[in-house]
Amino acid sequence: MTETGAQRPPSSPPIATSTSTSTSTSTSTGATTSASTGATTSAPAAPKAWPEVVAEVQSGVGQLSVTRCDGSSTGTGFLVAPDLVVTAAHVVDQASAITASLDGTAIRGVVLGFNKLADLALVRMNTPVSGHQFTFETIEPALGIDVAALGYPDGKTLTLTRGVVSGLHRDIDLGIGFIGDMIQTDAAINPGNSGGPLLGQDGLVSGVVSAYLPQAQSTAYAVAASRVAKAVKEWQARGVPLAPVDCGGAPAPDSGVFSMKVSSSHDQANNVGQALLLHGQGINRGAYAAAFKQLTPELGASFGGEAKWSEGLGSSYWTKLDVVNVIGAGNSLVVNVLLQTRQDAAHGVAGQTCSDWRIAYTMAWDGAAWRIAGTALPHGGPQACT
Question: Which of 317, 298, 305, 307 is nearest to 373 (CA)?
Fold first, then answer.
């Protein structure tokens, strides 16, 4: 079956046959006794409950914050090795910088493998982590079997949506060509879910979330596990990653990725932290258009537009961020952070080349993402780094 218009966020299934003529009887314990051999086998184990599955695997699912020269976005990825994350190709396409946030730690990533026509990518992190490492299902899921998508949709915290396998061997047009043999599911998929695992109740990966049909209700697609496993095996043998896109004029050395810590326990702390991370990552990579888009239109206008705002940054770039606390609820929050920057002495306050700032950001939810709506220095200007 061919589907068109999908958006991103000819084999037959195996047939079980039996040639045995022996009979069996059920015992009072639920075991089965074969009439031909007398052997007793245990009944199949009951599937795990979804809360149990999530508890086992959630440490291996991360949010990817991706900066491009003209904008930023987030997606989902999952560990297959201590330093390797599988995701969808469109999540990291044209990336200038990638940060993977796993278990509260932000880690720099680079693209090790990329196949746009299969919508698959493998990201290598510069620091290994100890989260759950996923395993791919080796057999095709049965039509109607329960599955669930794990990911970070719409800027939310880790979310599970349940459904069933509603179709197999789908050919999907993503606008760049057809991807064949995809799994169809009615699990709810939204922007931000892309690249996350589609799981069975055994915790194995049945597919990688890729796209959904906005004009159809409860219709989403995942790249089949067999295809993903083959690609990952090939890419793991490679040692040289793809070069990140150069936006020009990047003030930060190397990748521009910096450390972020979320000390606040507010339910939106990680989400506003990701918005600030994308802003700083854009500054560091010279992707000023992307960084500027993290501001509300009103705040951007108060700076006189993107060009004037970026000129005022000079050589400054971010090196460390701590989201200390978050105050408020609803669509407006105040976020108190500790921010460390580096810059040439000519661009630093009082000639500082390293500055520690205590900033209160006002963050506004615009219906799709958190944006920076204002900044304040309640404790005065920055102090020189100690």
Answer: 298
